[in-house]
Amino acid sequence: MYAMRKQPCSIKQTLSRAFCLSASIILLGTSTSAWALFSDDDARKAILDLRKSLATTQLELQSQIEKLKADNAELRGKIENLEKQGEEINASQKTYYLL
Predict the structure, then answer these.
(1) 89 — phi, psi (to 5°)?
(2) pTM value?
(3) Residues 6 or more apart from 9 whose CB is under 8 A from it?
(4) Closest C-alpha to 53, from 63, 61, 64, 42
(5) Where are the alpha helices (DSSP H) in the chain?
(6) Tens place of pLDDT for every residue, the chain, 99 residues?
(7) What is the longest distance spanned by two Cα atoms in the chain?
(8) Distant-in-sequence, close-in-space partners of 17: CB < 8 Å, separation ≥ 6
(9) Over the range 36-55, which residues count as b (16 or more CB within 10 Å of their CB) and which as e?
């Protein structure tokens, strides 16, 4: 079996490959930094928008909670009145039927 020998590269080919590789790295580096810059601004804007939306939602939820607390207090008052009326009716029926 013959061992495969690697063909020696000429200096011109080596320099050409090195130039292409370095040019690719430079272009890749500049394009990603520009992309990251725009992406960062977009991300910051999105975060600010989300914060505004979150604050608005929290205020709406707080308002709903306060309304529910008021409704709950009103219903408790009605329940207490109905319990009192029920006790009064029971007491009056006991006195009516005992006589």
Answers:
(1) -65, -45
(2) 0.50
(3) 17
(4) 61
(5) 11-98
(6) 455 555 555 666 776 777 777 777 776 666 555 555 557 788 888 889 999 999 999 999 999 999 999 999 999 999 999 999 999 999 999 888 776
(7) 127
(8) 9
(9) eeeeeeeeeeeeeeeeeeee
